[in-house]
């Protein structure tokens, strides 16, 4: 069997993470098997286990992937790009796949310190993006905030 290029290995790893996210969002972590993920990714168990030793590693990889996608919220973009990114983030329906995955992750994070720390990091990044957007709005005189930015961010994150 020919050796895969680093680019192909990374593409396969991404396919596995995407497949895991899909499966986890539909069945939850405990009702999703590695067989389900392999089938969704269209890869053999050996190919999947070449990237991830366990389902727990995949759960963490999905959370880490979410972090990388959230990093773009604070990447020094224009106010409009930050706004669009935040709208995309907050516009997902709570009952949709992303909302269900968040609920599964929050419930598991109660007893899983690794997942809890990843989720805390992701929430902190969202807070950063909200604070940055509010600071830019305030600096541009487009809005006058009636409460401290930290409080506004806290309120927005409760919705």
Could you walk me through the main structural features you see in this protein, from its secondary elements to its overall organization?
72% of the residues lie in helices and 0% in strands. It is built from eight helices and no strands. Helix 1 (6-27) crosses helix 2 (34-41). The radius of gyration is 18 Å and the shape is elongated. The termini are far apart. By secondary structure, the chain is mainly alpha-helical.
SSE inventory with pairings:
Elements: H1 6-27, H2 34-41, H3 45-51, H4 55-71, H5 79-90, H6 97-109, H7 113-139, H8 149-157
Q: Please provide the count of β strands.
A: 0
- Helical proportion? over 70%
Largest sheet: none
Percent range for β-strand residues: under 5%
**Discrete helix count:** 8
Overall SS class? mainly alpha
Large-scale geometry = elongated
Distance between the termini: 51 Å
Q: Give the topology string: H per helix, E per strand.
A: HHHHHHHH
